[in-house]
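Example for tutorial group B:
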C-alpha cells in the first residue's frame, strides 16, 4: 500500500508542481512581417520552464539516502531546476523501483538520477530509459552493462580493501593472538547490489592476502537484512550468540552498520571490533564515545546527490560527459580524526 501511495503522490507532483525558475529580463524580439503582430517591447519574455530531474533513491527516509537527497535538492535550488525525489521502502522492492523509473520516463522528465537497488534487475529498465533519449545518471551503485550516461560512486573494491586493512589493524591493537581461532561476522543490505559485491570482493581479497590463517571471515553465513534496521539488529544479536569466538563485525553498507552497532551497544560488547560504512547517528555516537573499538568508511554521498543533479542537468541541456565513471572518494573515520576539519566537511556538508 505504501508503494502505490508513493507512486500516486509523486506523479501528482510531477503534473501539478509549479517549479521555481528565473524569468528572462530581455524584451521579446519583433516578429517577422508575415506573422502575428509584434509583442509590446516593454513586456517581459515568458518565464523559462525549469528542467525536471527525477531523483530515485534506494530507500526513502533512510539516513544515508536522506543525506544524498539533501545534496540533490540543494543542487536544484542552486541551479534552478526541479528535483522530484522518490524511492522505495526497502532495498528488496526491486519491482517498486522499476515502476518508479518507468513512471519517470512516462512523465517525460528531462533527466533521471537513480541509485539502483539491484544491479542485474535494474539493468534492462535503465537501458530502456537511456535509449528513450533521457539522460540517466547513476549514483552509489552501477548496473550491469554500459547503457547509462554516467555514474558517480565510491571505488567500492578499494573501499572494501580499506575496511579489511582497518579491521586487521584494530584487531592487532587489541593484542589478539594470531594463532587464536577467531571469526568476523558480515551482513549486507542486498545481495544483488554491485556496490555490496565489490566491497566484499575488496575486503576478502585484502583479508586473504594479509590476515592470519586462524582469523576467518564468515562468508558462508552472510545475512541479508534487505535494508531493515530491525532485521540488521536481530542478525547482530544472533552472531553474538552463535559465535563465542567472534572478534569483529563488518557492515559494508549503512543499514548493516546500524544493525551491528545497535546490537553491540545494547549488549555492551566493547571487546568486538566494529568496522562499518557511512556516518549514521549510531556509528557516530559509538566513535565519539571513545569506549568502543570502531571505525567507519565514510562516503561523500551529499556530493553524489549534488553533483549527480548538476551533471544530469548539464546533459539535459545538451552537454557531454568527459568521464563515464566518477570516483567520489571516501574517508576512514575513527575517534582520532572525527573532529578534524576534513572529516567535518564531509559529515556536515
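The residue assignment follows.
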Amino acid at each position: 500500500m505504501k508503494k502505490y501511495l508513493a507512486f500516486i503522490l509523486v506523479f501528482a507532483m510531477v503534473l501539478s508542481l509549479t517549479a521555481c525558475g528565473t524569468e528572462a529580463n530581455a524584451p521579446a524580439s519583433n516578429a517577422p512581417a508575415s506573422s502575428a503582430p509584434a509583442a509590446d517591447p516593454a513586456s517581459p519574455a515568458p518565464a523559462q520552464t525549469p528542467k525536471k530531474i527525477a531523483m530515485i533513491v534506494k530507500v526513502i527516509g533512510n539516513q544515508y539516502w536522506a543525506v544524498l537527497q539533501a545534496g540533490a535538492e540543494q543542487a536544484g535550488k542552486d541551479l534552478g531546476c526541479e528535483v522530484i525525489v522518490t524511492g522505495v521502502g526497502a532495498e528488496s522492492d526491486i519491482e517498486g523501483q522499476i515502476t518508479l523509473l518507468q513512471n519517470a520516463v512516462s512523465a517525460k522528465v528531462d533527466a533521471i538520477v537513480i541509485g539502483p537497488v539491484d544491479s542485474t534487475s535494474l539493468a534492462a529498465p535503465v537501458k530502456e530509459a537511456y535509449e528513450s533519449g533521457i539522460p540517466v545518471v547513476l549514483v552509489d551503485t552501477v548496473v550491469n552493462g554500459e547503457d547509462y550516461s554516467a555514474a558517480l560512486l565510491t571505488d567500492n573494491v578499494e573501499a572494501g580493501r580499506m575496511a579489511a586493512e582497518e579491521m586487521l589493524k584494530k584487531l592487532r591493537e587489541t593484542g589478539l593472538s594470531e594463532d587464536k581461532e577467531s571469526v568476523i561476522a558480515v551482513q549486507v543490505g542486498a545481495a544483488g547490489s554491485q556496490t555490496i559485491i565489490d566491497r566484499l570482493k575488496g575486503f576478502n581479497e585484502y583479508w586473504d592476502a594479509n590476515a592470519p590463517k586462524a582469523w576467518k571471515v564468515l562468508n558462508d553465513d552472510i545475512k541479508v537484512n534487505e535494508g531493515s534496521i530491525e532485521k540488521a539488529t536481530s542478525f547482530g544479536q544472533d552472531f553474538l550468540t552463535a559465535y563465542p569466538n567472534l572478534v569483529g563485525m563488518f557492515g559494508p553498507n549503512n543499514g548493516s552498520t546500524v544493525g551491528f552497532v545497535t546490537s553491540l551497544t545494547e549488549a555492551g560488547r566493547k571487546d568486538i571490533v566494529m568496522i562499518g560504512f557511512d556516518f549514521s547517528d549510531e556509528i557516530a555516537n559509538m566513535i565519539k564515545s571513545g569506549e568502543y573499538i570502531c571505525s567507519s568508511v565514510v562516503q561523500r554521498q551529499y556530493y553524489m546527490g549534488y553533483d549527480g543533479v548538476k551533471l544530469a542537468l548539464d546533459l539535459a541541456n545538451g552537454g557531454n560527459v568527459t568521464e563515464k565513471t566518477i570516483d567520489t572518494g571516501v574517508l576512514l573515520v575513527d575517534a582520532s580524526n572525527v573532529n578534524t576539519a576534513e572529516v567535518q566537511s564531509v559529515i556536515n556538508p
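Residues 156-299+332-347 form a domain with the Rossmann fold fold (CATH 3.40.50.2300). Compare this with the pattern of hydrophobic and polar residues in the output above.
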